[in-house]
Design goal:
Helix content is 71%, strand content 0%. It is an all-alpha fold. It has 19 helices and no strands. The protein has one domain (19-438): Hydantoin permease (Orthogonal Bundle). Helix 12 (272-299) crosses helix 13. It is globular and about 60 Å long.
């Protein structure tokens, strides 16, 4: 009888006897998931907004060091807990209080799924000379299948694709060096544009943070948190730096007005076939992660549905949304990245502050009350604090205007939420210390 490779669990706690795997699987997962066009477009944005190549390089390095560190810290906090990320932070927000972050993360993951599928569908269409509609069907079908099968299949797929994608992006890197002499000199842009590009870089990488523990929840309880940190940090940083720097070089060549696939075709010339494969595979590696996390976040809303069935339903929603995602993709993409950062930044601040106190743990998550108000107030105030610092085509805050349209909203959201949570949770910390001393 054939073994069923589909994951049978939903968001419940994983007992010790069923734990398996090594932290190295997190390196290959985050490396593979980031070798794709979304990260490439983040790099392209810098020159498109008027930055020089060297400004883009600095923004990419600085932003990714910050974002990959935050991602790795959140992953480390979930080590050995046996719960996915959003179910685990019920320990911080409460069961019902966690509904808002869970809903936002579901929408974020489906948003990423949609953008990736739209770009990947164009690559599949050009690769096989198929109509776009059929290309989207093929791509979505594979991605939904990976989400349906679940954890172990996704990790194996990402491990294999890390090598495949790595080789394909080596080819793209070689071609970029061939064009290096054609990159025109550009005057440095103002500091406002520089701040805006850093915001996009940070937002892309730390938008993975609410996913962080989803791919380590089966790791044994004895797993060292430091190994989880470095595997996550290394996989994310290496991939995003590589791909975003390639994107920055292509953007500096003046091809930003082309579609994402058009840019890569112009770069690769006779090797376009391999670049299209890289885009197609990169879409699959990112979206296997997106659809799986969207499913776990959706189930954290206490929706009564099997995990595998939810993966199919949410995958279909993202596939349908991808049909209309091609127009004005670069400008929409910038706003999507910035809007993501506005809720993720205060969420990370609250989770990391709670983790430092030892409050992010399985026991507190499984016995969580409906509401934990310090975290909810801190999250809400952090979101409000972002507003004056926002810089998007939808809205620009007064502080952003003072900063030459530069966006520092994620800094404000993170720092304000951190301060408010620290202040509101001080009495709780004293009670916690007293209870520990009493027994």
């Amino acid at each position: 009888m054939a073994q069923d490779i589909r994951e049978s669990r939903g968001i419940e706690w994983i007992p010790g006897k069923d734990r398996h795997g090594r932290p190295s699987q997190l390196f290959s997962l985050w490396f593979s998931a980031n070798l794709g066009m979304p990260a490439f477009l983040v790099g392209v944005l810098g020159p498109v907004m008027g930055m020089s190549l060297w400004q883009t390089v600095v923004a990419v390095i600085a932003g990714n060091l910050v974002a990959s560190t935050l991602l790795a810290l959140v992953a480390q906090a979930g080590t050995g807990q046996g719960l996915a990320q959003l179910p685990l932070v019920r320990s911080v927000f409460g069961r019902r209080g966690n509904y808002l972050p869970s809903l936002l993360n579901t929408l974020s993951a489906i948003g990423w799924y949609t953008i990736n599928t739209a770009v990947g569908g164009e690559a599949v269409s050009r690769l096989f000379q198929w109509p776009l509609g059929w290309s989207l069907v093929l791509l979505a079908g594979i991605q939904i299948g990976l989400g349906y099968l679940g954890y172990d299949v996704i990790l194996r797929f990402e491990r294999v694709m890390a090598y495949v994608q790595g080789l394909l992006f080596v080819l793209m890197t070689v071609k970029v060096f061939e064009f290096a002499g054609r990159i025109p000199l550009a005057h440095p842009a103002g500091y406002g544009v520089f701040l805006l590009e850093i915001a996009a870089v940070v937002s892309y990488s730390f938008s993975w943070a609410p996913y962080a523990s989803d791919y380590g929840r089966y790791l044994p309880e004895s797993t060292a948190p430091s190994r989880v940190f470095w595997a996550t940090f290394g996989g994310s940083l290496l991939a995003t730096l590589w791909v975003e720097l390639l994107g920055g070089a292509v953007g500096a060549l003046g091809w930003g007005a082309l579609s994402p696939v058009g840019m890569v075709q112009r770069l690769m010339g006779a090797l376009t076939l391999w670049a299209l494969l890289a885009i197609m595979f990169g879409t699959m590696t990112a979206n296997a992660v997106n659809v799986y996390t969207a499913t776990l976040s959706f189930l954290t809303l206490d929706v009564r549905i099997r995990r595998a069935h939810a993966a199919v339903a949410l995958g279909i929603v993202g596939w349908l949304a991808a049909w209309g995602a091609n127009a004005h993709l670069l400008s929409d993409y910038e706003n999507f990245l910035l809007l993501l950062s506005y809720w993720v930044a205060p969420w990370i601040a609250v989770v990391l502050a709670a983790a430092r106190r030892g409050w992010v743990n399985t026991n507190r998550a499984l016995s969580a009350p409906d509401w934990r108000m310090p975290a909810l107030w801190a999250f809400a105030v952090g979101l409000v604090a972002v507003i004056p610092f926002m810089s998007t085509t939808l809205f620009e805050g007064p502080v952003a205007r003072m900063l030459d349209n530069g966006d520092t909203g994620y800094y404000a959201g993170f720092l304000v939420a951190l301060a408010v949570y620290g202040w509101l949770s001080r009495p709780r910390q004293k009670n916690w210390d007293r209870l520990r001393k009493e027994g």
